[in-house]
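Example record

One chain of 118 residues, shown exactly as stored in the release files.
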Amino acid sequence: MTASVNDEQSRTAPKRSGAGVTFGIIVLVIVIAAFPMFFNLGDPNEEEPFGGADGAATEVIEEGNPDYEPWFEPIIGELPGEVESGIFALQAGLGAGVLGYALGFYRGRDKGRGETRA
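Predicted structure tokens for this chain:
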């Protein structure tokens, strides 16, 4: 009876506590989030010191070709900041849901394959 227990223990990987790793990741996230607050690396003369890629791309295009005309106009037009933030949050939530589903699906599939082998 003890031989089967020893064999079972040798086949499974040792369980480790991930508290230190979790704490480290939380500290890293806090540092990354707080860094821009303490070190204002944006351009203070700009209306939005941390402008996005869309504004930078428009600026580069206008500098390179002042006569450039866009091919089309946006269907909706300019949206208030609250609506843009809401749409961005919805997009992030949907992306996180799809990613979480895929990770769970593949992990469950691998776990199911492991149980059928034993």
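Notes: The mean pLDDT is 80.
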